[in-house]
Design goal:
Elements (H helix, E strand, L loop, with lengths): L1 H19 L32 H4 L3 H13 L1 H23 L3 E11 L6 H6 L14 E14 L4 H67 L5 H35 L30 H4 L1 H22 L4 E12 L12 E10 L6 H68 L5 H35 L6
Antiparallel strand pairs: 1-2, 2-3, 3-4
Helix pairs in contact: 3-6, 4-6, 6-7, 6-9, 6-11, 9-10, 10-11
C-alpha cells in the first residue's frame, strides 16, 4: 500500500511538472534611446508642444473652425466610440476573475422505466407509510450557484491589465487623431488664404498686362511693332485670365475640404486674407528629443500597446499552469410544491473544487502563447519605428523652417527686382530701346515670382504647424 501511494504521488508530480512546462520562445527588448539633440537645433529645453492649440494659434477664424471640427468631425467621433468599446472590454476582463453568482428555479417531470435502478427504487414506498413516490415524478427546485476560478498565476488579472493598457492606448490614439486634425485644418486654412492672395496677384497682373497691351497696340499703329507683338500680348492675357478660373476652382475645393473636416455641408469659409505676404509664421521651440516620448500621443500609444502585449504573453504563459476552479450549488428541491419549503428535508447543496492541468494535445494553448509572443515582438518594433519616425519628422521640419526662411528672403528680393524690371522694360519699350518680348518675359517672370513668394509663405506656415504637430502639440 505504501509503494502504491509513493507511485501515485510520483505520477501526480510528473503530471504537474509536465503540465507546467512552458515552451521556449525568443524574447526581444525595446530600445528607448534617442539622440540628445536635433541636428541643427539649440539645446534649449523650451518646447512649444506644451502650449494648448488655443494659445498657439492666434487667428480667431481658425480657432472657430477647430472648435467646430472637434465637435462634429465624423472620424474623430468614430474613434471616441472605439474608446467606449475598449472600456467595455476592461469591464469584461475584470468580471472574468471575480466570482460568478447566479440564482434560478425550474421544474421537470421524470418517468423511469421499472426495470432500471431508478425505476426499482421509485417502486418503493415514501417516507410516510403506505404512500408511494409519485410516478411519473415531478421535480421543483429553487437554487443558487457560484463559480469561481482562483487566479493563482494572475492569468485573469494580467488579461484585465492588458485591456486597461489597450483602453489607455485608444485614448492616446484619439489624442493623435486630434493633433492631426488640428494641423490639417490649420494647413488647409493657410492654403486657402494663399490661394486668395495668388488670385489677387493674378488680377492685379492682368491690369498691368492690359496696360502693356494698350501700349503695344499704339506702337503697332505707329509701325514700331508688328501685329505679331499684339497677338503675343493678347495670348498671354488670355492665358492668365484662364488661370483665374483654375484658382477659383482650387479655392472652392479647399473650402469644401475644410467643411468636410469640420463636419458640415459646403459653405463659405470666414477668413482674413489681406496682406498675407506680411504674415509672420508661428514661432516653434523644438525642445529636446527626449521630450517626444512624453509629448507625442502616437509614441505613448505604441508604448501602452507594448505594455499590453507583454501582459498578454504572461497571460498566455499562465495557461500552461494548473487552474483551480471552485463551484458551489445550493437550494431547495422537492417532488411536490407542498414540500419545497420544508426544511431541512428539501435543502440540498454541492461544494467542489477542480484542479485542471493541460497534459495532452496542448497545441491550442501553445499556438496562443506563440502568437502572443510574436505580437509582443511586433509591438516592440512598432514602438521603435514610431520613435524613429517622430525624431525624423521633427528633424526634417526644423531643417525645413530654416531653409524656407532663407529661400523666402531670396525670393522676396527676386520679386522686388522683377517689379522694378517690369517698369524699366516698359519705359525702354516706349523709347524703342527694348524689344516687346523683353517686356512680355519680364512680366511673366514677375508674375511667377510673386506666386512663388506666396507659395513659400504658405510653406513657412505649414512647416511651423507641422513642427508643432510633430513635437506632440495640438491635442491638449
Amino acid at each position: 500500500m505504501k509503494k502504491n501511494s509513493i507511485l501515485y504521488l510520483g505520477i501526480t508530480c510528473a503530471v504537474l511538472i509536465t503540465g507546467c512546462k512552458v515552451p521556449f520562445n525568443v524574447q526581444k527588448s525595446e530600445n528607448k534611446n534617442v539622440p540628445s539633440t536635433y541636428p541643427i537645433a539649440s539645446k534649449d529645453s523650451t518646447n512649444s508642444a506644451i502650449l494648448k492649440w488655443r494659445v498657439f494659434f492666434t487667428d480667431s477664424n481658425l480657432i472657430a473652425l477647430i472648435d467646430t471640427a472637434l465637435k462634429n468631425n465624423q472620424e474623430l467621433n468614430i474613434i471616441l466610440q472605439e474608446i467606449n468599446i475598449a472600456n467595455s472590454e476592461v469591464l469584461a476582463r475584470k468580471g472574468a476573475y471575480l466570482p460568478y453568482l447566479g440564482i434560478g428555479g425550474g421544474t421537470s417531470l421524470e418517468k423511469s422505466a421499472l426495470y432500471t435502478r431508478n425505476g426499482a427504487v421509485d417502486d418503493g414506498t415514501n417516507i410516510k407509510s403506505g404512500q408511494k413516490i409519485p410516478d411519473p415524478l415531478s421535480n421543483f427546485a429553487l437554487y443558487g450557484n457560484l463559480n469561481w476560478e482562483i487566479d493563482i498565476w494572475k492569468k485573469l488579472r494580467n488579461s484585465k491589465k492588458s485591456a486597461v493598457y489597450k483602453y489607455l492606448a485608444s485614448i492616446e490614439g484619439k489624442n493623435f487623431m486630434v493633433t492631426n486634425l488640428v494641423s490639417e485644418i490649420a494647413n488647409t486654412y493657410y492654403e486657402l488664404i494663399a490661394l486668395d492672395n495668388q488670385l489677387e496677384i493674378l488680377k492685379n497682373n492682368l491690369k498691368i498686362q492690359e496696360e502693356a497691351l494698350a501700349i503695344v497696340k499704339i506702337e503697332k499703329q505707329t509701325a514700331v511693332v508688328t501685329e505679331l507683338a499684339v497677338k503675343r500680348f493678347e495670348a498671354e492675357l488670355f492665358k492668365n485670365k484662364s488661370h483665374i478660373y483654375s484658382i477659383q476652382q482650387k479655392i472652392i475645393e479647399t473650402e469644401n475640404k475644410i467643411n468636410f473636416l469640420v463636419g458640415r455641408f459646403p459653405q463659405p469659409i470666414k477668413r482674413n486674407s489681406n496682406n498675407f505676404i506680411n504674415f509672420i509664421p508661428y514661432t516653434v521651440k523644438s525642445g529636446l528629443p527626449s521630450q517626444l516620448l512624453q509629448q507625442r500621443p502616437d509614441i505613448k500609444q505604441a508604448e501602452l500597446g507594448l505594455l499590453a502585449a507583454k501582459l498578454d504573453v504572461k497571460s498566455a504563459k499562465a495557461a500552461f499552469y494548473p487552474s483551480l476552479n471552485i463551484s458551489a450549488f445550493t437550494g431547495l428541491q422537492a417532488f411536490q410544491l407542498l414540500y419545497l419549503t420544508t426544511l431541512p428535508q428539501s435543502l440540498f447543496y454541492v461544494l467542489g473544487g477542480d484542479l485542471l492541468v493541460p497534459l495532452i494535445n496542448r497545441t491550442a494553448i501553445k499556438s496562443l502563447y506563440y502568437s502572443a509572443n510574436a505580437k509582443q515582438i511586433q509591438a516592440i518594433y512598432n514602438y521603435e519605428r514610431t520613435v524613429l519616425n517622430a525624431f525624423i519628422e521633427t528633424a526634417n521640419q526644423i531643417s525645413n523652417i530654416d531653409n524656407l526662411q532663407k529661400s523666402y528672403n531670396l525670393k522676396n528680393q527676386q520679386v522686388e527686382t522683377l517689379i522694378q524690371s517690369v517698369n524699366i522694360s516698359i519705359n525702354l519699350f516706349k523709347s524703342a530701346r527694348a524689344d516687346y518680348m523683353e517686356v512680355l518675359f519680364t512680366q511673366r517672370d514677375a508674375l511667377e515670382a510673386k506666386m512663388e513668394l506666396v507659395e513659400t509663405k504658405k510653406q513657412q506656415f505649414n512647416a511651423s504647424i507641422n513642427l508643432y504637430r510633430n513635437l506632440g502639440g495640438g491635442w491638449k
